[in-house]
TrEMBL record, chains A, B:
Lineage, top ranks: Bacteria, Pseudomonadati, Pseudomonadota, Betaproteobacteria, Nitrosomonadales
Name of this chain's protein: Phosphate acyltransferase
Homology family: Belongs to the PlsX family.
GO CC entries: cytoplasm
Pfam families to which the protein is assigned, alphabetical: FA_synthesis
Function: Catalyzes the reversible formation of acyl-phosphate (acyl-PO(4)) from acyl-[acyl-carrier-protein] (acyl-ACP). This enzyme utilizes acyl-ACP as fatty acyl donor, but not acyl-CoA.
EC number: 2.3.1.274
PANTHER family: FATTY ACID/PHOSPHOLIPID SYNTHESIS PROTEIN PLSX (PTHR30100), PHOSPHATE ACYLTRANSFERASE (PTHR30100:SF1)
Class of enzymatic activity (EC top level): transferase
InterPro entries: FA_synthesis, Phospholipid_synth_PlsX-like
Length: 339, 339
């Protein structure tokens, strides 16, 4: 029910997703009359792979998370998370209020033993592929131990959904040297260095899009600023490019000739392809779609949930943390790499 | 003497700058034989507007700031800063080791009364103009009071070099609402709200390039990550665009036709135009050029120093802080806007 557009995006996107993925099953959670109206418009009826689950309330996009948690016990978000908790769904996908989703999923699902706080991880494009960045804003005041846990979660996510053993982890800092950064980052680097994770070391902001490491670890404040700054810069550059191609008759003609090239470029940097942040560290799979997602972007968020389920990210994470804990308790130095 | 290229960039850039600006006087500080060789190659001899001042040592680009401060008492950097201190120069411009420049300038020049820590401010382009962002990495662990001082310094810089009275100040955060962010940012917002500065409120990363405010305030860790992330993204997008225009014979032709447009776009986003970070809060004007600056970029850094001298940034800042202090001490509520 959530997001800037609500069911008129999420319902068609779900229907379309099932046309591509013949073994998935989607449960549409929300107000039955609203969902049915959307399905009617698509000439689709609920079936064995597309079911409807009623929820009478909606969390507003600007509602305070604590208010939603206390008062909206039958919200689509809460009901969907309960389905995950009861094992009736393997993942919850929402385009709704981020703060409410964080608070409610933490309350309903609880964190995995060994993880203090869930983190939001996103995929970002790089010069030669893509990288996973976390945290993107779920955690504002992080300790070194939190950053270390983000590293474990990120590495497990990459190894499970990308089938890439022992992914490299970079710690976002303001210089590569060990002496750089604040105390939290320095202590986190120490934890990484003493672990058997594949720790690359400190990286700088430009290393994100260079793809220097498979995982980029930072606190939620820094990660959120980096991501939003990127969005702003991309918008500015796009606006400049548009203006230059409109400046004169000649440049308009050049724009016309270049249209297929510009379109290929735009497809490649289309941020909708990267939609869907993984909320990691909970006893259940939760994906946060951008509130402004259109049908294609929401499709990508659904795909991300399915990838995590099929990659068994959740159980691998639980296992991975148990191995790390066992090694620490028994002082074992064999590699506890992300399997 | 500093920077990735040394005098073969800085000397020609200084010579070229004086051809454009007929009332400026540049003192080239460093090893006389090296500088003279560069001047000879340009068929230029020292004159009343271009003088030479000897310094026998050079601070290495990777040298530890404390080591440079202790041991390199006749480095070009230190000697140039001494000239500023003695009033023989009105500004020092360096492309050298950033950490050493920060430490040495603070030691030689000292901070303005009322300012705890100097900050690095850069100009960044926006959709409709440009904005000033500080701090960019001089300060890692900032208090609310430091962020507030950055705001005063940024506002004074904008009002003096742009002749823009009462510039707006945005506080970089992860949401616009007052409840967002960590404690330091929340307390800083409170200080701004209780001041008579033109405080816009919290802004997010994308507001930087949107040009929402004239000044963007953040701690040095966040600012450095935001700037470096931007550099990385711009490089990635440029690389993508190049690749798309090279993909086929058709796209190569389209690229050829679009070359004037693409070049106009590149000129517009040319980061060299924004070279030169102001080190604010010292009892003297200091400009840090990017180490990799070429002759054109270094020219822009010289221009920035001259703008600050002509705009009387330093004395306006001293005055502005005195007025603010007076108002706080006497509980005055008249506007103490950046004059």
């Amino acid at each position: 029910m959530g997001g800037d557009h609500g069911p008129c995006v999420t319902v068609p996107s779900a229907v379309e997703y099932l046309r591509h993925d013949h073994s998935a099953h989607i449960i549409l959670v929300g107000k039955p009359e609203v969902i049915t109206k959307e399905l009617d418009a698509l000439k689709v009826t609920p079936n064995s792979r597309l079911t409807l689950y009623p929820a009478s309330e909606i969390v507003g996009m600007d509602e305070h998370p604590a208010f939603a948690l206390r008062n909206k016990k039958d919200s689509s978000m809460r009901v969907a998370l309960n389905l995950v908790k009861k094992g009736e769904a393997q993942a919850c996908i929402s385009a709704g209020n981020t703060g409410a989703l964080l608070a409610t999923s933490r309350f309903v699902l609880k964190t995995i033993s060994g993880i203090d706080r869930p983190a939001l991880a996103v995929v970002l494009p790089t010069i030669s592929g893509h990288t996973y960045v976390l945290d993107l804003g779920a955690n504002i005041n992080c300790t070194a131990e939190h950053l270390f846990q983000f590293g474990i979660m990120g590495a497990t996510l990459v190894s499970s959904v990308e089938n890439k053993p022992n992914p490299s982890i970079g710690l976002l800092n303001i210089g590569e040297e060990d002496i750089k950064g604040n105390d939290v980052v320095k202590q986190a680097a120490e934890l990484f260095r003493n672990s058997n994770l594949n720790f690359y070391g400190n990286i700088e902001g430009d290393d994100i899009y260079r793809g220097t490491t498979n995982v980029v670890v930072c606190d939620g404040f820094v990660g959120n600023v980096a991501l939003k700054t990127s969005e702003g810069l991309a918008q500015m550059l796009a606006s400049y490019l548009r203006e230059e191609f409109k400046r004169s008759l000649f440049s308009k003609l050049a724009g016309l000739v270049s249209l297929p090239v510009i379109n290929a470029f735009r497809r490649r940097v289309d941020h909708r392809r990267y939609n869907g942040a993984s909320l990691l560290g909970l006893r259940g799979t939760v994906i946060k779609s951008h509130g402004s997602a259109d049908s294609f972007a929401f499709h990508c968020a659904i795909k991300r949930a399915v990838d995590e389920i099929r990659g068994d990210t959740l159980h691998r994470l639980i296992e991975h943390i148990e191995v790390l804990r066992h090694n620490i308790e028994h002082n074992v130095t064999q590699p506890a790499s992300a399997k």
